[in-house]
Design brief:
By secondary structure, the chain is of the alpha+beta class. The chain has 16 helices and twelve strands. The N and C termini lie far apart (70 Å).
């Protein structure tokens, strides 16, 4: 018998199959709350995202962390139920209900069987319109927040992100990624109530619902559950824009005892609704956004400088950032930085190959299709469209727009938005072991890890 031939190359990718998404319907509830509904009857389930424009960017300057603590405490008891009573009510419905805040907005997320949607809407309304902010629960949340913060401050990755945000965003609120112990200790139940009263209003919120419910049934439930929730004319004053960069700088966070160096390298990027953003995202994915990317193959596979290396393009409403990251040994930190910057420079000079681009587009379109196979994925995309001010058809047209990107498009975008000679280099490690290696890359600033 002859030996079976071994296939050594993957089959060519097939053509994109049509992406069929349930239709969207928008309406305004009686209280003025804007609602986006995607009726999806594939499973007897409903996913909800109630989003309020009250993220960390809206924290008072002297109280960073207020939005996050407020969001957390929404589910820790209401004016009708103690914390344990509220948790039991959610559990009895077989539901989930939680809240958190990011830089741009706070989100109350819930999932429930379709047959239990109406009682869940009542619980959702309680969290948003009538939280208790019980002093005991607030104090417990503060203690947990401080303990988490103390742990974070021992982690080099956190210290790198903190300094990187400060350097890139300057006086813009995005420069703050965490509270301080002083700000947390200064918060009280009344502080949370004031922040809630100033921001949690139907005219500052959006509800996204995906699942087995029709618009008429949903509207009736919302009008009953949220009755009495009043608009407040919430205003958001503009923030000072992040500083522009015209040269490269090095920022060392001195952390005694570090056996490796945590690196973050990059600069500001266009906002997500910029026409160049998608092509830049494709470029970022090819550079360092997945296994097999340029940074992965060079810094990890060929040079062996790092186990974990990559790049990331953040998405925020007012300003975004491009960053490359790695954790390396102190003795190779200079070489690692050089190789990472070199890969960006090669992109600027030579662009991207057709095969590389095709593979990257297939990867992005494949992961996007998988993401939209769940109700949560669809809800998350709609929230991003609304909160980041993206075109309304972004979800439906994503794959075709990715496919339309050419090598020429990538070359143009790289020239406009990636500048290795203007990047900030943040390194967390023992300063005396890495400073000389980093001095050739720009003016060096050293700060203690505090």
């Amino acid at each position: 018998m002859g030996r079976t031939a071994v296939i050594t190359t993957p089959p060519p990718p097939t053509a994109l199959r049509p992406l069929v998404l349930p239709g969207r319907e928008e309406f305004t509830a009686a209280d003025g709350l804007r609602v986006v509904l995607v009726e999806d009857t594939r499973v007897p389930f409903v996913t909800l995202r109630l989003v309020v424009r009250a993220g960390s960017a809206h924290d008072p300057a002297d109280l960073p962390g207020l939005a996050a603590l407020t969001a957390h405490c929404l589910t820790q008891g209401t004016q009708k139920r103690k914390s344990f009573q509220f948790a039991r009510a959610v559990e009895e419905l077989g539901a989930t209900l939680e809240a958190h805040a990011n830089r741009d907005y706070s989100t109350v997320s819930a999932t429930v069987l379709a047959e239990n949607l109406m009682p869940l809407l009542k619980l959702l309304a309680e969290t948003v319109t009538a939280p208790a902010f019980d002093p005991e629960e607030v104090e417990l949340a503060k203690e947990n927040t401080i303990q988490t913060l103390r742990y974070q401050r021992t982690q080099p990755a956190f210290l790198a992100r903190e300094r990187y945000a400060q350097v890139l965003f300057g006086k813009h609120p995005y420069s703050r990624i965490a509270p301080t112990e002083e700000s947390v200790n200064a918060m009280t139940s009344d502080t949370l109530r004031q922040f809630h009263a100033s921001n949690y209003a139907p005219d500052n919120s959006l509800l996204v619902v995906v699942g087995a419910v029709d618009a008429s049934h949903l509207r009736q439930g919302l009008d009953k559950a949220f009755a009495g929730w009043q608009p407040r004319g919430v205003q958001h004053p503009p923030h000072e824009p992040p500083p522009s960069r015209d040269h490269r700088t090095v920022h060392i966070v001195h952390r005694p005892g570090s056996v490796q160096v945590n690196l973050l390298i990059g600069h500001l990027a266009p906002r997500p609704n910029d026409p160049d953003f998608l092509a830049l995202d494709v470029t970022n994915t090819a550079l360092g956004g997945r296994a097999g990317s340029r940074l992965f193959m060079n810094v990890r596979e060929q040079k062996g400088f790092a186990y974990d290396v990559g790049s990331h393009l953040s998405q925020h409403r007012e300003a975004s950032s491009f960053s490359m990251s790695a954790q390396v040994r102190p003795e190779v930190v200079g070489e690692a930085v050089q190789e990472m910057l070199k890969e960006v420079d090669i992109l600027r000079r030579e662009g991207i190959t057709e095969n590389e681009l095709e593979s990257t587009k297939n990867y992005l379109n494949g992961t996007f299709s998988i993401h939209l196979s769940t109700q949560g994925g669809i809800a998350s995309e709609i929230v991003a469209i609304e909160m980041l001010e993206l075109p309304k058809d972004s979800m439906e047209t994503y794959r075709e727009r990715v496919q339309s990107i050419t090598t020429e498009t990538v070359c143009d975008v790289v020239q406009r938005h990636l500048f290795p000679d203007r990047m900030a280099i943040v390194a967390v490690g023992e300063a005396e072991h890495i400073q000389k290696s980093l001095e050739p890359f720009g003016e060096v600033e050293v700060r203690p890890a505090s």
